[in-house]
Design goal:
alpha+beta; three-stranded mixed beta sheet
Amino acid sequence: MARALSKRSLGYRRLALSLRSPTSQDRASSSIPRFAFAFPVIVIDSPLFECSRKQDGELELIEVLNSEFLFSAHIPDYIGCSVKVITKEYLPDFAQWTKELANTIRGELKDEEANAFNAKLGCAE
């Protein structure tokens, strides 16, 4: 049940927007800049349900393998991300999807990555 990766997918857009520069701790431990990917996930070992309201006002409960919620806070600056909630059974598919997504984004940032490495190593472009 793998998802297709494209620039239009919601997961791709959220991840691309959430990429951050290395922290000061990262900079001190390495002379080469790092591109890091994070996929916040909660894995549960029980059924997972989504609840919504139908047109007639009645509640509808549907069992799903994965879902997500949007988290935001001001700590002290605004931060927001999508947190996936998945079942233990869905974990292998999720791991494969995140690996493919990270590789796709890294491929699209290939030029920027090369420029960062070359700048850090003092090489010409």
